[in-house]
Amino acid sequence: MSHPTNDPVAPELFAAVFQSLDIPIVVVDYATRRVVAVNRAFTSESGYTAEQLIGRETRELSLFPSEESRDRLYATLAEQKQLTTTVVGQAPDGNVAELTLCLSLAEVGGRRYMVIYTKFMNTLLDETHQVEQRLRDVLAVVPGVIYQYRYDAARKGRFTYLSNKTEALCGITAKDIVMHEGCFWEHVPYEHRREARDSFAAAAANRSPWEWKFPLRHVRTGEEHWFYCIAFPKMLPDGGTLWTGFVSDITQLHRLQEAQQAAQTLLQEERLQKNKLESLGTLAGGIAHDVNNLLAVLTGNLGLIKRDTSLGEESQRRLESIERATERAKLLAKQLLTFAKGGDPVLESVSPEVFVVEPMQYILEGRGVDVTFHLATPLWRVRADVGQLSQVFQNLATNAADAMPEGGQVRVHLQNRTLGEQDVPGLAAGDYVHISVTDTGSGIAPEHLSRVFDPYFTTKAEGYGLGLAIVYSVISKHGGHIAVTSTLGVGTRFDVYLPARKTMEVTLESAVLTGDEADRIANRRLLVMDDDELVREMLGTALETFGYGVVACRAGEEAIERYQAAMANGSPFLAVILDLHINRGMGGRETLERLRQLDPQVTAIVCSGYHDDSIMANYRLYGFAAKLPKPFDIEALGAVLGRLFPDASKP
Questions:
Q1: What is the C-alpha separation between 255 and 164, in angstroms, rounded?
Q2: Smallest Cα–Cα separation from 397: which of 454, 433, 357?
Q3: CB 159 within 8 A of CB 148
Q4: Which of 135, 295, 329, 360 is the most buried (most CB within 10 A)?
Q5: 148-178 residue pLDDT tens
Q6: Whether 373 contacts 352, CB under 8 Å
Q7: Which pLDDT belongs to residue 289?
Q8: How far is it, in rounded angstroms, from Cα 572 to Cα 524?
Q9: Cβ-count burial 129-147 (b if 16+ within 10 Å, e if not)
Q10: Which residues, in sequence order, are CB contacts of 533 under 8 Å at separation 6+?
Q11: How far apart are CA 311 and CA 305, in angstroms?
Q12: 3-class DSSP state for residue 604?
């Protein structure tokens, strides 16, 4: 009879059993602390492959706050042979989470091995895998960081879970934060760290949700980002609290809120400034009225005294000195009246270049300052008091020149702008002409910038401090807006916005016309294009005298637009008068070529001060019906019109 033998079991059988177990198991060499074996259940559970695990040191997989805590774990296992512990592990996708593991110490062939496993049953493992997979799918698309933070009864805390979006949001890996939490806090400004400590302590005491908004500079890019954090507490059996939270990047929202706050503050300052000016304007108007009355008496009596031939030379000199002081007093009274409450502008439709270019050029060039103008073509017209706005830009030119006593540069840009509701605080949406004046002067100190429009505020040794107050008042009364920016040692920029009129006005005779007369003029409209405002006004007046309606524009681009619009409206122009040479715009020759594409039958008159120009000499070859050499008199203009339109009669 045979007896059972005690033959050794083949190692392959142990390996097969090890791999077939559903319990995740990893074997670690106790001395080297390196992984020597894993089964398929562990690789499936952890997401690592066997190749990624074999030979790795456990410190790369389980995260401890310090080497001392890790050493204590190994020493305890050597004494007790078995223990259950909680560690924080890192998954291949970068997520870190708290894990509960069972550890056993086994000795084989004189070497000690640490066997790590779990006690979950198969059905629980399958369910756990499904839940974890669903969680991974959700976390992959969440645009923020999900975390868990354990806060024990002794008020000590540590992260037990951080999703892998951590590195993308702040430039620090989840692993680094778990192992060295201070590497996160050192990038948060101190005042916000203190705020977090105090607000979290209050939320923990009340067991209520915790909210926190904080800035942090991205560790890799150096850019400042703003984050919003919210966390909810869950009480643990040991008396601690598990906080589950979410952190999102709100940088764009924060910047928008800051911009809205700044705009609100600026709008409030604008309102205060206007109220202040209105009050001071009322007072200034009354003072100016009384001063002018006194000056009238003073100047009248000065005139009478000067007629006294018995006065000596010394007395005459003193009277002249009094007279000069009186003239300065008159100027001051005029300035007071300009921004006084009753000084409303008398409006007319004009091109902004009229009150910008010449007034500024006269002052700046006379002070040795280089000035250049950049004008949009066509430039919309505005309803303006030319005298008041000329004074505005004279004051801006004077300020620029005063800031550059050794000379410098001024750049003036005039452009059309269509603004939305919030584009410029204090201005309604609509069409505006935007005029910017930029100098290369000494700049304005930051502490003075908010007061530059205040009446009587000045940093100059001489002056009344009324120049920019007048500028502000006049612009406001025109329904516009002015703002200033400046950098010391670099220069200053003023931005002026004036409400614009995109369409040109048809001017008729000022006399009251009958219905038939108005219809006849409307059907006899001429389009005038010239870059000189005075020439446009003169031609308009002269043509109205001959019974024509007039639409005036500055350059070719606008002329084409007006001509095309008139054709579309069924009221075409009878003819066009085109200046041959236009500064900063399309001239007469090119304009006519474009007009002939719209209307091959267009009647055009060429006008120029360059008599020897080949086009003036051979105007018919270029498609013009007649020419008007500058300067011309009214009779010459009438003769040209009579030849081109012999059947037309005056209304």
A1: 26
A2: 357
A3: yes
A4: 360
A5: 888 887 778 888 888 777 888 888 887 788 7
A6: no
A7: 53
A8: 9
A9: eeeeeeeeeebeeeebbbb
A10: 350, 351, 353, 354
A11: 9
A12: strand
Q: What's at 93, amino acid-wise?
A: D
> What are the tens digits of pLDDT across the range 512-561?
333 344 344 446 789 999 887 777 877 887 788 788 888 888 888 989 98
Length of the chain: 651
Contact 608, 579 (CB under 8 A): yes
- Eight-class DSSP state of 622: G
* 461: DSSP letter: S
SS3 406: coil
Give the contacts of 198 (CB within 8 A, at least 6 positions apart): none
Nearest one of 396, 383, 388, 395 to 352, comparing CA atoms: 383
* Strands 96-108, 111-117: pairing kind: antiparallel
- Quote the DSSP letter at residue 34: B
Q: Which residue has the tokens 């894990």?
A: 99
Q: How far apart are CA 644 and CA 651, in angstroms?
A: 17
H-helix or E-strand containing 99?
strand 96-108
Instruction: Determine if the peptide bond prior to 446 is cis (ω within 30°).
Output: no
How far apart, in whole angstroms, are the C-alpha atoms of residue 94 and residue 97?
10
Interval 593-648: pLDDT, tens: 999 999 999 999 998 766 556 787 788 888 999 888 776 667 778 888 888 887 65
Distance from the Cα of residue 185 to its chain's centroid: 32
Rounded Cα distance between 625 and 645, Å, is 11
Contact of 118 with 24, CB cutoff 8 Å? yes
Helix, strand, coil abundance in the chain, percent, nearest 5: 45, 25, 30
Nearest alpha-carbon partner for 408 in 366, 440, 438: 440
| pLDDT digit string, tens, across residues 20-30 | 787 888 898 98
The distance of Cα 45 from the centroid of its chain, to the nearest Å, equals 51
Q: What angle do CA 389, 393, 396 make, to 5 degrees?
A: 140
Helix or strand run (H / E) with residue 155: none
Rounded Cα distance, 596 and 599, in Å: 5
